[in-house]
Amino acid sequence: MPEQPQHTGTLLREIPSGDPAADLDRGIELLREVAQGKRGPLLRIYRPAPTVAFGQRDTRAPGYEAAAQASRDAGFAPLIRKAGGRAMAYHPGSWVIDHIQPEKDAMLTHQHRFEHFANLFVEVFTRLGVPAAVGELPGEYCPGEYSVHGIATGESRFEKGRKVKLVGTAQRVVQGAWLFSSAVVLEETEPIAAVTESVYKAMDLELDPRTIGSAQDLVATHVTHERFIDVLLEVWGEHGYVFS
Q1: Could you give the CA distance from residue 216 to residue 237 in angstroms, rounded to a whole number?
Q2: For residue range 129-170, what is the model confidence (pLDDT) as tens digits?
Q3: What share of the chain is helix, strand, coil (3-state, %, to 5)?
Q4: Which residues of the chain form beta strands (DSSP E)?
Q5: Measured at the alpha carbon of residue 176, what is the angle toward residues 230 and 105, in degrees to the nearest 5?
């Protein structure tokens, strides 16, 4: 049986402002408002403008400036996120999902959230007919223990069994609240693959290009954006997060 709702909050369906930096920073602004009690729990979702979100560690890499220029050359805005991780590219074929919750001792559950939300995304993709699992792929971009990857069915663009990263996550915790931000790639792999390879080469970071892909590369049926969001809200609701 589905779990009973534990949290109710506001669903923010946003349209990109035309300023990718402002769109990225808005998540942090909303986090502060939730921490200050000005807002309740939020699920903010939007299809982003072409962006390469660099982690703080990336800015210290000898090739960072060249990587940033490679992003611009490809038509992707190079931005530095305040959360952790390595560089990840996304565009309007993707979704950014910012889940923000008030919590008194938010840091205590920091690590648990990576595992928890990874498993929720696996549920989402499974219901969409996309085989998925949790676990880092060798040579993946923005590597992490709780990365979510999909597995090609063999009736798709990719050969059967090929594994590609589908969800990149980052987290920001402040006193009284947390932000769990996820970038999900649904379609249009080519621009993301090209800019990711250029950026990682510039910074001399390990990358296996075969781990780059989208949900649409893995199955024969069309995974629509509308269906993805419907299923995401369904799964979140069954795990106690109801947003409307």
Answers
A1: 25
A2: 999 999 999 999 999 999 999 999 988 899 999 999 999 998
A3: 35, 25, 40
A4: 7-13, 42-46, 51-54, 77-80, 88-90, 94-102, 132-134, 148-151, 163-174, 177-185, 241-243
A5: 95
